[in-house]
Amino acid sequence: xRYRYTKRIxxxxxxxxxxxxxxxxxxxxxxxxxxxxxxxxxxxxxxxSVCSRSAGAKAYCHAQxxxxxxxxxxxxxxxxxxxxxxxxxQSAYALPAGTSGSFVxxxxxxxxxxxxxxxxxxxxxxxxxxxxxxxxCATSNSTPTVNDLVGCLFSKVxxxxxxxxxxxxxxxxxxxxxxxxxxxxxxxxxxxxxxxxANSNYFSDLGAAVDRAAAMGANTISNSYxxxxxxxxxxxxxxxxxxxxxxxxxxSSGDSGYGVExxxxxxxxxxVGGTSLARNSNTSRGWSETAWSGAGSGCxxxxxxxxxxxxxxxxxxxxxxxxxxxxDPNTGVAVYDSxxxxxxxxxxxxxxxxxxxxxxxxxxxxxxNAGGSAPSITYGEYPYSHTANLFDVTSGSxxxxxxxxxxxxxxLCTAISGYDGPTGLGTxxxxxxx
Length: 434
Fold this sequence. Notes:
Helix content is 22%, strand content 20%. It is built from eight helices and 19 strands. It is of the alpha/beta class. Helix 3 (86-92) crosses helix 6 (171-187), helix 4 (121-131) runs parallel beside helix 6 and helix 6 (171-187) runs parallel beside helix 8. The strands form five sheets. Strands 4, 5, 6, 7, 9, 11, 12 and 15 form an eight-stranded mixed β-sheet that branches.
């Protein structure tokens, strides 16, 4: 699995490195507010993970940052120039735009669980919301400040539920945090955002943060991280943290192509795969999607089969993913991050299934089925009985999963009509499937 991922990154880098082709790709990206060509993508952008892979009982975040071809440094600008905006995501997935003007809470809270602290999280999400005219908290000030935001639509706590002390800062996870809270803002502008920061990237701390988010009344909880599966993952020590009936818990499937990670494999979550989301004027939707080559998928080695999932090939266990959303860095989203920036160049383009997880968590919140007095959510089951309200993704692959002797496994790594591993049941077409 690592080999395929390394090879893919190198091929992306080669595609843009040197010569006129690389220059045109980067200049085209910088000069357009959204992707310039008819497909919606600028192919061949180089990118890398902002978090290092972790061994043992640790997770790493799934955010992929787009980089410059010439030196591998992040492609950053002082002002917004590129990457999908909230309005683009709302258009692509047929989602409501939310209120305009002052923030009016819709009684839904999207919790974001990440490791370590981003000290600039509140100011960064404020800058993002201002840029894209998302609702802000009513205030007597002509220009809303961070103090106006905190306690109104955004709050940050440690894994014990306290505002202090917060964990130590970490630039990579800090960028993951900004990506997550800004995607929640983009998709559900009228949702409150609860950021729960785990003390570390150990699964035990991240699990405690999930429990804290559930205890604090979150309707949905997004987790954009993962690591290798392990034999004890089904125990209460690990899976127990995700066992919160009635709360929609989403987990990104990973960015290394075909292969399964934990906690996306957990029987108690909605595993979120990834697509390449492109503008397409030849469709009534105005957009098209294919499976992203980096999205994780496959058959879990340990988690039991879920009765609502179809049988695919020889897999007798839980299959990843359930649903999906945009994740390809080549069709990435705009993110404002001042913590990991330099010289005021705070606008970046991000991809990875870290984009997809908070998108789906926020769609669950828009649907209003999670939490409350009569929740309809039983882990990842709900979309399986509402497939008519999803965009089926039918092309693209994330790796090799079938052999001549067992071609029935093909859907574990290749998008087909109906259910498949990389994209699950498909992507949101409104909120009714959630």
